[in-house]
Amino acid sequence: QVQLVESGGGLVQPGGSLRLSCAASVFTFSRYAMSWYRQAPGKERELVARITSAGDSTNYADSVKGRFTISRDNAKNTVYLQMNSLKSEDTAVYLCNFFSVLLGNFWGQGTQVTVSS
């Protein structure tokens, strides 16, 4: 069983920044890629960013490229999402995801990000 706990969401004005964190309770965290997804009301869940196990490669949705940065600290079993230049369309619940063929697919409870003036 893998538990993921997100934090760092909140209300921010357009153009502002937030940093999300996701703490994972998995012994072998450093062996697995991690991802951030988001889901806005009435919309499908979408992949925002993914980072490899060593943190040496990242991928982003086109809508967030150049504004968001995913990173990880394997010593702390934590993955981060730095979000800059936030827009109203970034408003969503942000979810951390862990997937392993061996261990399964796990989601955190999500953290709400609201971008509004």
Describe this structure in words.
The chain has 117 residues and is mainly beta. Strands 2, 4, 5, 6, 9, 10 and 11 form a 7-stranded mixed sheet that branches. Strands 1-3-8-7 form a 4-stranded antiparallel sheet, with no helix packed on it. A hairpin with a 6-residue loop joins strand 4 and strand 5. It is built from no helices and 11 strands.
Question: Which structural traits does this protein have?
Answer:
single chain; 117 residues; mainly beta
Strand content: over 45%
Number of strands: 11
Shape: globular
Radius of gyration: 13 Å
Helix content: under 10%
Number of helices: 0
N→C terminal distance: 40 Å
Which structural class fits the helix and strand makeup? mainly beta
* Oligomerization: single chain
Instruction: Average the pLDDT over all residues and give the rounded result.
Output: 96
Query: Regions with pLDDT < 50 over 5+ consecutive residues?
Result: none
What is the N-to-C order of secondary-structure elements (H for helix, E for strand)? EEEEEEEEEEE
Biggest β-sheet: count, sense, barrel?
7 strands, mixed
Brief summary:
It is built from no helices and eleven strands. With 117 residues, the chain is mainly β.
Task: Chart the SSEs and their pairings.
Elements: E1 4-7, E2 10-12, E3 18-24, E4 34-39, E5 46-51, E6 58-60, E7 68-73, E8 78-83, E9 92-100, E10 104-107, E11 111-115
Parallel strand pairs: 2-11
Antiparallel strand pairs: 1-3, 3-8, 4-5, 4-9, 5-6, 7-8, 9-10, 9-11
